[in-house]
Amino acid sequence: MTITASEIELKAQAAKRAARRMATASSEVKNAALNLLAEGLVAREDEILAANARDVEASQANGLSPAKLDRLTLTPERLAAIAKDVRNVAMLADPVGEMIEMRRLPNGMQVGKMRVPFGVIGAVYENRPNVTVDIASLCLKAGSACILRGGKEALQSNLAIGEVIASALADAGAPEGAVQIVESNDRAVVAELLQLKEYIDLVVPRGGEELIRFVEKNATMPVLIGGIGVCHTYVDREADLGKARDIVVNAKTRRYSICNALDTMIVHADVARAFLPEVQKALAAKDCELRCDDRSFEILEGRGGVTRASDDDYGKEWLALIASVKVVDSYDDAVDFIYRYSSGHSDAIVTENYTTAMRFLREVDTAVCYVNASTQFTDGAQFGMGAEIIDATQKFHARGPVGLREICTYKWIVFGDGHTRPA
Questions:
Q1: Residues of the chain with pLDDT under 50
Q2: What is the pLDDT of residue 166?
Q3: Contact 40, 80 (CB under 8 A)
Q4: 7-224+389-415 and 231-377 in the same fold
Q5: What string of H, E and C letters represents the secondary structure of the chain?
Q6: Per DSSP, what are the bridge partners of residue 402?
Q7: d(CA 131, CA 82)
Q8: For residue 1, what pLDDT is reported?
Q9: C-alpha to C-alpha distance for 155 and 151, rounded to whole angstroms
Q10: Distance, C-alpha 288 to centroid of its chain
Q11: What's residue 423's pLDDT?
């Protein structure tokens, strides 16, 4: 009996073939593909938004949470921003072939490293169609092929975007199969994809904890993990309270459905009575609830949207207009609290004391540490990277927003002049 390869294996094989050509594709070809992709996203806006509307309607009927609906939804403004990010990736320096850490040894040989593509990057993610564009554009510029398996909620959106990507690749003369969109919603396809180590060099899961743990447990290739975002902002005793209020409100309410939104506000006891009523008023105007420990509740009791916190209200990624509050007696207490509850994604301090700020940067073990800024900035585009493939929370070769350089690997290179090793 003849056994035929499955659809996902055929896609992986095609990606492997394309990766060899992508590794040597010129910057001109890669940039042309990216600019054509950006143009296509704008030119075919109506088509993409219509497909997205079908996804949103079906997901609403199936009871998808407001936070996930927000991540799923595309608008003309969001699509234009996605296209702008693609153009920004095209303008970045091509990392492939860059020689780094070159040095001359005492024997005269030159030794160093050269950035090279990973090869084939697989991505398994949930209901965020913008991720399809982000990962495809970064992989293209970094000389890798990719296989993208989005969530069922965004299937129609991803298929429409996939057509734009395929057209851009073809028109630019990029290798066929460099970007593969998996059309199946069957979870068994994900399980099979994770076994294709022969073809896929790295896999990236983006989504909830259940998805991340499934990929981590079942993948046969390396996994680049971005866990949940439990993000804290600590208002120090020497904070500018007006600055702190604005930072906290932005970090929580600008867009509450993303992983870098504030989850817990920590306030030094010396400024709690002055600060908490003002920030509560500003947050209440945005319909944000506060879950307070005993000390903050005593200050805010009787105000709308203020309730006592339970133990489960800390260390929780809310993805909602809710934040927990903790009052502490010292900087050390604040850092201890962050160590206990942070997921290692993004944490911030608001202070005018330089020494305290530098202690925070050295002592808080998180992927992105902020001083006097909103955690909402944790994003590859905001960091000048064009886009990101993931916000990594593990201590791997890359941490925080992962961009072009982070999705390259390297090989050692050696320049000699007839050198032979002595016996």
A1: 1-2
A2: 96
A3: no
A4: no
A5: CCCCCCHHHHHHHHHHHHHHHHCCCCHHHHHHHHHHHHHHHHHCHHHHHHHHHHHHHHHHHCCCCHHHHHHHCCCHHHHHHHHHHHHHHHHCCCCCCCEEEEEECCCCCEEEEEEEECCEEEEEECCCHHHHHHHHHHHHHCCCEEEEECCHHHHHHHHHHHHHHHHHHHHHCCCCCCEEECCCCCHHHHHHHCCCCCCCCEEEEECCHHHHHHHHHHCCCCECCCCCCCEEEEECCCCCHHHHHHHHHHHHHCCCCCCCCEEEEEEEHHHHHHHHHHHHHHHHCCCCEEEECHHHHHHHCCCCCEEECCHHHCCCCCCCCEEEEEEECCHHHHHHHHHHHCCCCEEEEECCCHHHHHHHHHHCCCCEEEECCCHHHCCCCCCCCCCCCEEECCCCCCCEEECCHHHEEEEEEEECCCCCCCC
A6: 390
A7: 9
A8: 40
A9: 7
A10: 25
A11: 87
pLDDT in the model for residue 227: 67
Query: What are 147-167's pLDDT values in tens digits?
Result: 999 989 999 999 999 999 999
pLDDT for 5: 64
* Sheet with 408-415, edge to edge strand ranges: 99-104, 110-117, 408-415
Q: What is the CA radius of gyration of the chain?
A: 24
Q: In the structure encoding, which two tokens stand for residue 40, read together?
A: 């296509």
Instruction: Identify any residues that bridge with 414 across adjacent strands, giving them in sequence order.
Output: 111
Sheet holding 346-350, edge to edge: 306-308, 289-292, 322-328, 262-268, 231-235, 346-350, 368-371
Distance CA 423, CA 421 (A): 7
Q: What is the CATH number of domain 231-377?
A: 3.40.309.10
Domain definitions of the chain by residue range: 7-224+389-415, 231-377
How far from the centroid of its chain's Cα atoms is residue 64's Cα? 21
- Look at domain 7-224+389-415 and name its CATH class: alpha beta
Cα(285)–Cα(366) distance, integer angstroms: 30
Residue 11 contacts residue 56 (beta carbons within 8 Å): no
Residue 326 β-bridge partners: 266
CA distance 400 to 408: 15
Q: What is the C-alpha separation between 350 and 342, in angstroms, rounded?
A: 17
| Strand 322-328, strand 262-268: pairing | parallel
